[in-house]
Design goal:
The protein has helices at 34-38, 83-104, 133-140, 169-182, 189-201, 213-221, 227-231, 235-251, 265-290, 295-306, 313-317, 321-334; strands at residues 68-71, 75-79, 112-117, 142-149, 156-164, 353-354, 361-366, 372-378, 383-393, 413-419, 422-423, 427-428, 432-436, 441-447, 458-467. It folds into 2 domains: 5-334, no CATH class; 353-467, Jelly Rolls (Sandwich), CATH 2.60.120. The protein is built from 12 helices and 15 strands. Strand 2, helix 2 and strand 3 form a beta-alpha-beta unit. It is of the alpha+beta class. The strands form 3 sheets. Strands 6, 8, 10, 11, 12 and 14 form a 6-stranded mixed β-sheet that branches. It has a 5-stranded mixed β-sheet with strand order 1-2-3-5-4, sandwiched between helices. It has a 4-stranded antiparallel β-sheet with strand order 7-15-9-13, with no helix packed on it.
């Protein structure tokens, strides 16, 4: 597998960074002291694309759009968006919340306070919920503040969401707010940010990623982040938090809010790094959430993170580290807008036996899947016969074909051999014939089609395999 060989660099451990667990009672809109700020838990959003930020607009005028409050079932939204886009935003936020509720299996509690800013000039300081809100919105994109009210058994976690109106920012923060308000925990940086990006870049459910062309190019062409790199992230986001701490400390007793210009070029560069980290966080979470080989174990890990149990990525996934790293590299090589990790999962537990006598092996091969394990072990240089019966289609509206497929090669039965997580070059098969094994290992089969177009394939073939009789080559 030529692309991204370095994702295989870490084979023994998968360390993770522990989550922060700072909380405080904080009155919205009330100036916070440096000590209070250090106790706040901000989840810095990088859901906005490069160059996207809050609209700066023109200087304030008498006719400016002052913030208005809207409500839905789970959100109280204060925004300077007009009524129609505000309603559309609430609908998207409710959809993101519904996915979180379905995934983490805990109903949403109460309403979430949200401030979404289109143009900062429309917002007087008293309308914003925190003295650093202008910096957060204009320099970072968004943040979620976790607050605890009450004591003992009456203690309750609530979330405050602050976001730019740029596409995807509020949806990203909704995931943080749901976790903060319903669990009081969000997990380590790679997990909480990767899962929040699901609301922006896609979470699967029968569809491929929603990444931009630039993001797809970054993931395919690197430089790749290893799994070890991803689960160890958090340093860049911590630098942003430290910068916000410093701005609040410098403010002292000044009642005015910190201006966006206080965010320096160095801070902006750190924000860019965080955005890139979030993309890789998403890629790993997307793979583990949607690949049936790992999805239940990943759900267990997330549940343990959010309920503050003592589990770790290393303990749960080290037993299958080689398999995960292989599928992660395979995913990065082929990721596209229609790539389905559920359909392209590898069959790691299919038993196989040597195909070295006259006893045939018969396997099903589905058109709407990637490489599928046969039960045949082949030997390099040996000849094998095959016969495929049945029909399939390599697109929803195409006429079915047999395993010979179409003239351009689509719909044709093809094979590959795997041994010790290494693949041979794929080779064409068809309805019937013979092939020489390019290397020793387990034979895999699939219907030839673009990796991003498997979801609309239909049908299957049955493939009968035997060793070629002596003198029959």
């Amino acid at each position: 597998m030529p692309a991204h060989p370095d994702v295989f660099a870490e084979t023994s451990v998968f360390p993770h960074s522990p989550p922060a667990r700072c909380r405080t009672n904080h009155l919205v809109g009330r100036p916070a002291s440096p000590l209070v700020w250090l106790a706040l838990w901000w989840c810095l959003s990088a859901a906005i694309a490069a160059g996207q930020g809050v609209v700066t607009g023109s200087p304030p005028t008498a006719g400016r759009d002052l913030p208005v409050e809207y409500q839905s079932r789970h959100f109280v939204l204060t925004t300077d968006l007009a009524a129609e886009p505000a309603a559309a935003l609430l609908e998207r936020m409710e959809a993101a919340l519904a996915d979180a509720v379905e995934y983490w299996r805990r109903p949403a509690r109460g309403q979430i306070d949200c401030y979404v800013v289109r143009d900062l000039h429309n917002w007087p300081d008293y309308a914003l919920p925190h003295p650093l809100a202008r910096v957060v919105v204009n320099g970072i994109g968004g943040a979620t503040l976790q607050r605890t009210s009450g004591r003992g058994r009456t203690a309750r976690d609530t979330a405050l969401l602050i976001a730019s109106a740029a596409p995807g920012v509020a949806e990203h923060e909704v995931i943080h707010a749901y976790c903060a308000q319903n669990f009081g925990e969000m997990g380590p940086p790679w997990y909480k940010e990767g899962m929040a990006e699901m609301a922006v870049l896609g979470h699967g459910r029968g569809q491929g990623p929603r990444c931009s062309p630039a993001q797809l190019d970054t993931l395919r062409n690197g430089p790749a982040h290893t799994i070890h790199d991803i689960v160890s992230t958090g340093q860049s986001a911590q630098r942003l938090t430290d910068a916000l701490d410093a701005l609040l400390a410098q403010r002292g007793g000044d009642p005015r809010h910190v201006r966006p210009e206080a965010w320096t070029a160095t801070d902006a560069d750190n924000t860019r790094r965080v955005r890139e980290e979030y993309l890789w966080n998403w890629a790993l979470c997307y793979l583990l959430r949607n690949n049936p080989n790992y999805s239940e174990r990943f759900r267990l890990l997330g549940g343990d993170y959010l309920t503050k149990k003592n589990d770790s990525f290393e303990r749960l996934f080290t037993p299958m580290a080689d398999e995960i790293m292989f599928e992660y590299a395979f995913f990065l090589q082929r990721i596209d807008s229609g790539f389905r990790v559920d359909l392209c999962r590898w069959d790691w537990h299919t038993p196989a036996r040597p195909l070295d006598d006259a006893t045939p092996i018969t396997n099903r091969c589905l058109a709407a899947r990637g490489w599928q394990a046969s039960e045949a072990l082949v030997t390099a240089g040996s000849s094998y016969d095959y016969e495929a019966t049945g029909t399939w289609s390599a697109a929803r509206h195409w006429e079915p074909t047999d395993a010979d497929g179409h003239a351009d090669g689509s719909g044709r039965l093809v094979g590959v051999v795997m041994r010790d997580f290494q693949l041979s070059e794929p080779f064409p098969l068809g309805c019937h014939g013979s092939f020489f094994a390019p290397m020793s290992g387990q034979l895999y089969l699939r219907c030839e089609d673009s990796w991003s177009c498997l979801g609309d394939n239909r049908g299957e073939v049955s493939v009968r395999l035997t060793s070629t009789p002596a003198g029959g080559e």
